[in-house]
Amino acid sequence: MTDAAPGTWSTDGSSADSARSVTLTDLLRVPMHRLRLVAAAALVGLLAALGYVLLVPAALTASAVVAVRPVVTDAFTPSGAGADRAVNMNVESGIATGTEVVQRLANAAGADPRNVRDALEVEVPTGGQILRFTYQARDAQRAVQSANMAAEAYLSVRRAMYEQQRAEMLRSYDASITKVAAQQSALQKRANSAKDTAAGDALVAELAGINNQLTQLNAARTEIAAVDVNPGWVTQSAEKALVTSAGHRPLYLVAGLLGGALIGVVLAYLWESTDRRVRSVADGRDASGLPLLGTVRRPAFRGSPRAVDADVRYVAMAVAERVRPPARVALLTAREDATALTAGLAVALAADGREVFVADDSGRIERLRASVLADRGRLPIDPSRPLVPKPRPAGSVPTGSGGADGTPARRPSPHPLGARPSTDPDATLTLPRVSSARPDNNARVVAPDEVAVGVGSVRFGTWRQGADHGLVLFNAPPAESDERGVAVARQGSAVVVVERDRTRQSDLRRLVERLRAAGVTPLGFVLTRNGRA
């Protein structure tokens, strides 16, 4: 079988690939391939949340409700529809969380006022005159006491403010009444000592005005003194039975898990930005600029490697299309091991009748032989089976049914009419495709280092031992640590093996640059996965 001459292949990537848009799959590919990092970060977040839940005591919350009433002169007068306008609830909320209330709580509990301010929360429902005091503490007793104390402290502070305002107003009225009373006494004396009737009438009229003003001041003072300065009532006191846990503890675990996973995704992208790997065919083309010879996929099920073997055979056809004997093909990798792919290609090439020599100078001959034997057993059709049956000796009776008279049925002669068939009992039939008819494996003379594969064979040895063979596959060591693969490729051709999710793009670019600097034009690259050919 003669290999075809190598064709011209463009080393430039497809123009469509250069303008390829980024899809959601591309965004998810990095976290999926860095799944260990994401899982580790999520586990750390979960453990941190679990440690917080187990080690930090749960914060208990107690609530007390205060109904705020406006201070009016007539307590029986309704405040109207706008109840929230009767009292400025924003001001009341500010007083409830003010310094005086917080200081009273801190003095009673012997705590830091800053911690008390953080633990105390006052809620104001919209459109109502209600203050809800909520206090968080490590034990229920303290939470209940602090919530009730905060409500009482607010009422006490507000009552003291109202009483102070009332006292100031009463003091002002008392001063005014005292001044008017002094004026009244002075006019009374002048009116009593007046001898002129007209002057006396004028003083009496003025005295009547002073008396009327004094009466109004006394009435106003009495009204102010009767004002109820009670700022409100505690309508619901905090109790132990009503204490609830502050927040939902299981949510901390969910938050820790999701937060850790998010941090893991960010770390995965950061790691990927510094350590880019070949994730797809497009990445391989962009990094190497070489044409694709084929992709070797990992089987969906470990017990069904047929799809992988078919991929290897397609790669073998692509390689055979580009080389002609004598051919020297070096399978090069950056840091990975291409032993499995080398053995698979050797089996696929030998199955078509080629004599393949697999060379290795790194001590991997036994691994190559084991891989070849394993791959040979999975060939879909065994071409080593003879297509023409063995000639039957003269005088033998065929196994098929004879004629009606019991005589053996005559086989149609392959010779034309008038030609005399050979009487030699060892004569065989001659068909046009003699290359496909090979004797049995048992009848072949197989060298000790040779493995029969189909109608071809695979031999193993070092690079020097394969100098006289027509087709040599060199299982090159990693190019990052050994230059022998590039040196062998200078004497023939090279196939770059790229392992998906493991080969770094920087290593692949460096390998292709070294090949081109050495004067080697690679046939292309093969994309494998997880080191499995």
How would you describe this protein?
The radius of gyration is 51 Å and the shape is rod-shaped. It starts with 14 loop residues before the first helix and ends with a strand. Helix content is 45%, strand content 14%. The protein is α/β, with parallel strands linked by helices. The longest helix has 54 residues, at 140-193. The strands form two sheets. It has an eight-stranded mixed sheet. Strands 1, 2, 3, 4 and 5 form a five-stranded antiparallel sheet that branches. Helix 2 packs across helix 3 (35-55), helix 8 runs antiparallel to helix 9 (197-225) and helix 11 (281-288) packs across helix 16 (505-517). The protein has helices at residues 15-18, 24-33, 35-55, 83-86, 89-96, 99-109, 113-119, 140-193, 197-225, 249-274, 281-288, 306-322, 339-350, 365-376, 484-489, 505-517; strands spanning 60-68, 120-123, 130-137, 232-236, 244-245, 292-295, 327-332, 355-359, 450-453, 456-461, 471-475, 493-500, 524-529. It is built from 16 helices and 13 strands.
The strand line-up of the biggest sheet is: 6-13-12-7-11-8-10-9
The global form is rod-shaped
Helix-strand category: alpha/beta
Number of strands: 13
Mean pLDDT: 77
Low-confidence runs (pLDDT<50, min 5 residues)? 1-18, 384-390, 396-419, 429-446
Our measurement of the CA-to-CA distance between the termini, rounded to an integer number of angstroms, reads 26 Å
Give a short account of the largest sheet.
8 strands, mixed
Give the helix proportion (percent range): 40-55%
Number of helical segments with 4 or more residues: 16
- Beta content: 5-15%
Question: What Rg is obtained from the alpha carbons, in whole angstroms?
Answer: 51 Å
Order of helices and strands: HHHEHHHHEEHHEEHHEHEHEHEEEHEHE
